[in-house]
Amino acid sequence: MTLSFPSALDRTSVLVLNRHWVAIDSVTPTQAFGHLATGTARAVFISAESMQAFGWEDWRDLPVDGADSIGTPRGRVRIPTVIVLSRYDRIPVLRPKFGFRALWERDGGRCQYSGRKLTPAEANIDHVLPRSRGGRDEWENCVISDRSLNSRKGARTPAEAGLHLLHPPRAPRALPSTLRLRNHWNIPDWNHFLKLPA
Asked: Which residues have a Cβ under 8 Å from the Cβ of 196 and sit 6 or more positions away?
């Protein structure tokens, strides 16, 4: 298959393995080709019988055989689905970026005052110590709240408003990047390296 639109080169559709072959990230084909061209990674060719890593010189000579590819002056080159880094051996640890979605996930979509399961339209972010009183936009001061309760609370603390938090707000635990990887494009080659949900 030939890719004819530039957006395909901008999707994070290439799985990145550390040098121990543990999945740690996903990148765009453009970024993957940059790694291959500079020698910081090798492309993994996966067949029913085996897996083999190729440097740039050997990778670009592989037959395309209907795989996604791009045109180059030397002919079509297969777009890798998996690359393995040559030297990097760590597993990055990531904390979600602070915001509504991350707070929603941390609080399980429940109002932290009433415990009621909310829809995103019913929820908003409440500052435990209101911003007007010096409260900051941070994990330890923000919770998911029912819009109506948050409105009633206003610029008061929970105690002043007669509300009680179900749990003290905390920053979520940092998790290995591997646990956050998802195969959004349903690329079969990724399944060899990602832990599938039970």
From this structure: none
